[in-house]
Design brief:
This protein is of the alpha+beta class and 140 residues long. The chain contains 1 helix and 10 strands.
């Protein structure tokens, strides 16, 4: 009887360790996913700006709310300061000057930049390259 109690005690400890590990794993995964969402929101602009338009293939215009979420203001950013053409692909880079080597640039689906950069049409989610900083469009 006593040996069976010892076995049950050991089994309960093993089960407890497994449950703690499972819970820790689930919490770790949830925190990792949450941090990606927060990072995306901090760098992005699409959830706090509307009325997007593109002029001259590289000037992005939008109306954005400020940090308090109370006031809207018109803003613009020269995407040449945020995006580069690297080997025919658009990439987020400070002072990239993509418009010098890309043509036919336009917005698709509100925040997707579409250009012909030598290797055909390439797309870039501008939410990765542009931020709303207190109502102003900026390069992160």
């Amino acid at each position: 009887m006593e040996s069976r109690l010892v076995e049950i005690n050991i089994e309960l400890r093993q089960w407890s360790y497994k449950m703690q590990f499972s819970l820790l794993s689930a919490v770790s995964i949830a925190l990792a996913l949450a941090s990606q969402v927060v990072a995306k929101e901090q760098n992005g602009f699409i959830n706090s700006c509307d009325g997007l338009s593109l002029a001259s293939g590289h000037i992005l215009f939008a109306t954005c709310v400020d940090a308090a979420g109370t006031a809207s203001q018109s803003s613009s950013v020269d995407l040449n300061n945020c995006v580069a053409n690297i080997g025919g692909n658009l990439e987020c880079t400070i002072n990239g000057q993509y418009a010098r080597s890309c043509s036919g640039c336009q917005l698709q689906d509100t925040d997707i930049l579409s250009c012909n950069c030598g290797a055909g049409i390439t797309l870039k989610d501008l939410n990765d390259c542009v931020s709303n900083t207190n109502g102003q469009l900026t390069c992160p």
